[in-house]
Amino acid sequence: MDKTVIKRIIEEDPFLKYVGVKVLSLKEGYCKISVGFRKELTRLGDMMNGGAIATLADSAGGCAVLTLNDRSNQVTVQLDTSFLRTIKTGPVVAEASVTRKGKVLSFADVKIFDGDKQLCAAAKGIWFVFGDIGR
């Protein structure tokens, strides 16, 4: 799929736009996105909320899957996230790489880094690819 189309899909998605996700880099089977560290994405202790971190992992993985599928939609089937350290600085960056592409299932690994470039979370996910996204 065309990189400008993928960037538009990610950055104009209503939820991801609200969260503030920005696409930094796209290659075949790879996506790098970021989000600023802001109060609305934190929890007690002034650290990024785990749900916000999982959202970033899910978005990066889905974005990487989109780079390998011509105008197909996809949904997350499974996302396993390991939280390795707290995130207290931004921008927070997620890098995802597709590890296997099947006919309807694609698998990706995601790494999430804080503003100090420290690895803070790692995720593995499975995305189900179907139909046309209609955009």
Q: Could you characterize the architecture of this molecule?
A:
- The chain has 135 residues and is α+β, with helices and mostly antiparallel strands.
- Helices cover 24% and strands 45% of the residues.
- It has helices at residues 3-12, 14-19, 50-66, and strands at residues 22-27, 30-35, 42-43, 47-48, 72-83, 92-101, 105-113, 119-132.
- The strands form two sheets. It has a six-stranded antiparallel β-sheet with strand order 1-2-6-7-8-5, with helices on one face. The chain has a two-stranded antiparallel ribbon with strand order 3-4.
- The longest helix is centred in the middle third of the chain and has 17 residues, at 50-66.
- The termini are close together.
- The mean pLDDT is 94.
Whole-number total of structural domains: 1
Radius of gyration: 14 Å
The helicity comes to 10-25%
How many strands, what sense, and barrel or not for the largest sheet?
6 strands, antiparallel
Number of helices: 3
H/E element sequence: HHEEEEHEEEE
Shape-level CATH architecture: Roll
Name the CATH class: Alpha Beta
Can you say what the CATH homologous superfamily is?
A: Hotdog Thioesterase
Span between termini: 12 Å
CATH names the topology as Thiol Ester Dehydrase, Chain A
Shape descriptor:
globular
Mean pLDDT: 94
How many β-strand stretches?
Answer: 8
Percent of residues in beta strands: over 45%
Structural class: alpha+beta
Low-confidence runs of at least 5 consecutive residues: none
Q: How are the strands ordered across the major sheet?
A: 1-2-6-7-8-5
